[in-house]
Automatic annotation (TrEMBL):
GO-annotated biological processes: quaternary ammonium group transport
A Gene Ontology term for the protein's cellular component: ATP-binding cassette (ABC) transporter complex
Classification via PROSITE patterns: ABC_TRANSPORTER_1 (PS00211), ABC_TRANSPORTER_2 (PS50893)
Homology family: Belongs to the ABC transporter superfamily.
Pfam family, one: TOBE_2
GO molecular function: ABC-type ferric iron transporter activity; ATP binding; ATP hydrolysis activity
InterPro entries named in the record: AAA+_ATPase (IPR003593), ABC_SmlMolc_Importer (IPR050093), ABC_transporter-like_ATP-bd (IPR003439), ABC_transporter-like_CS (IPR017871), ABC_transpr_FbpC (IPR015853), Mo/tungstate-bd_C_term_dom (IPR008995), P-loop_NTPase (IPR027417), Transp-assoc_OB_typ2 (IPR013611)
Gene3D superfamilies in the record: P-loop containing nucleotide triphosphate hydrolases (3.40.50.300)
Native source species: Parvibaculum lavamentivorans (strain DS-1 / DSM 13023 / NCIMB 13966)
Protein name: ABC transporter related
Keywords assigned: ATP-binding, Cell membrane, Ion transport, Iron, Iron transport, Membrane, Nucleotide-binding, Transport
Amino acid sequence: MALAFRNVGHSFGDHRVLSGVSLEARQGEILCLLGPSGSGKTTLLRLAAGLEALQEGSIDLGGALLAAPGRDVPPEKRSFGMVFQDHALFPHLTVAENVAFGLAGRPKEQARQVVAERLASVGLAGFEDRYPHTLSGGQQQRVALARALAPSPAAMLLDEPFASVDVTRRRALREEARRALKAAGVITLVVTHDPVEAMEIADRIAVMEKGRIAQCATPEELYARPASALVASLFGEAQRFPATVFKGEAVTAYGPVPAENFADGTAVEVIVRPEAVTLAAAESGQETFNIADIRFLGRDWLVLLTNAQSPMLEPLRARVSTLEGLETGAAIALRFDPCGTFIFAA
């Protein structure tokens, strides 16, 4: 069983939103659509839900056609559970009544058991008689998730489901949602603009850029082997710096990076993660950079470096485990670890 998008294209007037998108979300898998605003991720979700008429390509579920130009199965007949940012709970119904809303026609005792199981799966056992206004935002979103899962849908569609939840509760909510979704074994498609959220909840992530899939892979693959500058810059607090290749090196304002696969004179972007920046006392003749600021982050320190010759350039961020020999205002040498440094044509 899979939810499959095949060569999907869509436009709003003259504005091209999706172009040639092909993607499969598999049974029991949580697949995240990740990308900046305007990349097409929410439009793709709405096409899957049947909230927009498909213009190009096709969408099928387990081999059954859901949408193609001129053919659209109504949203209520697509066997999808949907969760949106605003919860959309019925304020006049109790938590149990909200969760049971999609169970009309089932025997009362069976419905009661399903409600109890779904609430327990999201950590809300005992909340059956509460009303939505008495719950926190995170609890309301968990009720919305339980309600969407209650009818045992073939697939779940979630659109920025945690965006309105307080940041202090967001991580715990993501963990609870992932456990509930994996336990249910459904196909899950989640839209998010938050790379950390995508890595914490997804089995695979499809990074979208300008209406296309830039790369679709596991979080580990995206982090270690990004296919584009956008993908590389999304993860690990990476920074992007312009550079030009000269004698096999990309020359940046913070020093050279090996670039053997690019011809001299090629304009490139160098993507650097903070943990890939190694600091050391300068030796004779080495280029140095100034420590502009140091911030304690708990397990390590963030060191901000500047180049006196390029004062308007964004400071380079480095993460270090010790401050031995480092202090604000000092001059320091640096090198880039290839494992956290990437180069792409500009």
